[in-house]
Write a structure and sequence with these properties.
Layout: E1 38-44, H1 50-61, E2 65-67, E3 73-79, H2 83-87, E4 94-102, H3 111-124, H4 128-141, H5 145-153, H6 172-179, E5 214-219, E6 247-255, H7 263-278, E7 281-282, E8 289-296, E9 299-305, H8 326-335, E10 343-346, H9 353-361, E11 366-371, H10 374-394, E12 404-408, E13 423-427, H11 437-454, E14 461-466, H12 469-478, E15 483-493, E16 496-505
Parallel strand pairs: 6-7, 6-8, 10-11, 10-13, 11-12, 13-14
Antiparallel strand pairs: 1-3, 1-4, 2-3, 4-9, 5-6, 8-9, 14-16, 15-16
Helix pairs in contact: 3-7, 8-9, 11-12
GO molecular function: RNA binding; tRNA (guanine) methyltransferase activity
Biased composition (Basic residues): 142-151
Keywords: Cytoplasm, Methyltransferase, RNA-binding, Transferase, tRNA processing
Length: 517
């Protein structure tokens, strides 16, 4: 097995909690006597929307964020009592509490020495407060267990939710392990000594095309533990003196081409040292604690996962061939700055990720969703019903429905009055799983013209996601009199390099067409 290299490791008594080591770039606030427990939280976010996530954290939690050099991550400090609010953030995918961060970690050139340093690092890390935060987070998660079990029994919920947009692309499955590595319960075993790499070779975990080695590894360091080595996180004993052994796994994400070791090797040796330090039992699938080892060039972050599955799965129960992540939908909506009473339209809604996210976060706007596919409309309607049921279960006395309607229509001939819409937000066909690149050359200009017709001149705006950037640029040049490009955000969608365009409606009158009523 992958962990065979540490199976014969001699066991030593569990050491006490060690103080922080070396020069750390960022470490959790020390919990002094009587001081409030604080936590440095790391969050993975859709690549390109790091600033959006930082603004949401500032707005809702009052904390300043730091955007990591490893794109797709932000860090912020909050009091541990704010964990429920942290989990309600709309722009973050996965959360972890930082044990310690090293901004300029010096790796030895020799593989054995570099791995030995990682092993030795375990004893020096300040585990105590992060494990307290993990325990507190666990107590919050237990409240949701019943609802989660109910969802797992629903056949629709077992369908795979793609990490991509409405057009995730054929390479999606290859990159999901990178996008949601914390959720992958399968051991990654090296074959023939090769690294476990992204098959594309140049797309990193955060979707930035760069010529470096990117890999992710969950390594099972199976070491038999004796029942007397009790394991309550932080002190090694349960409150009743019972021998409950915590189970753990280590997930390593490594990006960079100057490391002498693979992610498998780092996870294996670091995990062996974690086991030796805490006397925990390794378990790849039924684990209590997930220790994260993130290595990006010379930046090293050790953390403990606070989410079991990505928060972007919050709204969708009925999935289509492609489903936009709720976190990406939130970023797109926030980009167009919705105001109360705005009418927001998604003319190609697919399973409804964008309008459902919009109705949940901007309930004082009116959301209209539509698609030309009857199956998509049906799935979106089912997802809306699920949202209504969720709202009712929270508080049946105040459940008033959601400001959202859905209709089947033709994107090029919308049944909406000219100038009646404030915002258009949609995920346009990439021409891979749905439609084709050839069809896009006709579809994109027609879509932009029709969106320009329904949008209010002067104040209307559109936020459009597409991977077919060449076709979009050409289409936009044809309608330059009614749309002006204000901003472009480069994003990673299921391993594909895509762009989110913010367009502003000019004062020019759009071409009228004969009303359909």
């Amino acid at each position: 097995s992958v962990g065979a290299g540490v199976c014969d490791r001699p066991r030593s008594p569990q050491p006490g909690m060690a103080a922080a080591a070396g020069d750390a770039g960022l470490a959790p606030a020390a919990a002094q006597e009587g001081a409030e427990l604080a936590a440095v939280i790391g969050a993975t976010v859709p690549t390109g929307f790091e600033q959006t996530a930082a603004e949401e954290v500032q707005e809702k939690l009052g904390s300043a964020s730091r955007i990591s050099r490893d794109r797709g991550k932000i860090y912020f400090e909050v009091p541990a009592r704010s964990l429920p609010q942290v989990h309600r953030l709309r722009s973050v995918d996965n959360l972890f509490v930082v044990v310690q961060e090293f901004k300029d970690y010096q790796f030895k050139e020799n593989k054995e020495d570099a791995l030995k340093d990682l092993e030795d690092l375990v004893k020096k890390l300040p585990w105590t407060d992060p494990l307290k935060v993990w325990e507190l987070n666990n107590s919050l998660k237990k409240k949701k267990t019943k609802r989660k079990k109910h969802n797992l029994q629903n056949p629709a919920s077992r369908e795979k939710l793609s990490d991509g947009g409405e057009e995730g692309g054929a390479d999606q499955n290859n990159t999901n392990a990178q996008e949601d590595s914390a959720q992958n319960p399968v051991a990654v075993e090296p074959t023939g000594g090769k690294d476990t790499e992204n098959p594309q070779g140049v797309t990193s975990r955060n979707g930035v095309e760069e010529e470096e080695n990117n890999e992710q590894s969950d390594v099972n360091v199976e070491v038999q533990t004796s029942s007397e080595s009790g394991t309550k996180a932080g002190d090694g004993q349960t409150g009743e003196g019972e021998a409950k052994v915590l189970r753990f796994r280590v997930t390593c994400n490594r990006a960079g081409d100057k490391h002498s070791f693979t992610s498998n090797e780092a996870a294996r040796d670091f995990g062996g040292a974690v086991q030796e330090h805490f006397q925990w039992k390794a378990d790849m699938t039924n684990f209590d604690v997930e220790v994260l080892l993130n290595i990006h060039n010379n930046e090293v972050v050790v953390g403990i996962a606070l989410t079991e599955e990505s928060l972007h799965r919050r709204n969708i129960t009925h999935f289509g061939p492609t489903t936009l992540r709720s976190t990406l939908a939130y970023g797109m909506l926030r980009l167009c700055d919705p105001q109360p009473t705005d009418i927001i339209v998604d003319p190609m809604c697919g399973t409804g990720a964008i309008p459902i996210e919009g109705a949940a976060e901007w309930p004082y706007c009116y959301h209209i969703a539509g698609d030309n596919s009857p199956q998509a409309v049906k799935r979106a309607a089912n997802n809306i019903c699920s949202l209504l049921r969720k709202n009712e279960s929270k508080d049946s006395s105040t459940a008033l429905g959601v400001p959202l309607d859905i209709i089947q229509w033709d994107i090029c001939n919308l049944p909406l009055r000219t100038g009646s819409v404030d915002i258009v937000v949609t995920d346009m066909p990439f021409g891979k799983r749905i439609g084709s690149k050839k069809k896009n050359w006709d579809l994109y200009p027609a879509c932009l013209m029709e969106m320009g017709r329904i949008c209010t001149p002067g104040t209307g705006r559109a936020v459009l996601l597409t991977q077919d950037k060449k076709c979009f640029a050409k289409a936009l040049s044809h309608v330059g009199h009614i749309w002006r490009r204000a901003q472009t955000v480069w994003v990673n969608v299921g391993g594909l390099h895509a762009a989110v365009y913010l367009l502003r409606r000019t004062w020019e009158t759009a071409e009228e067409r004969r009303p359909c009523w």
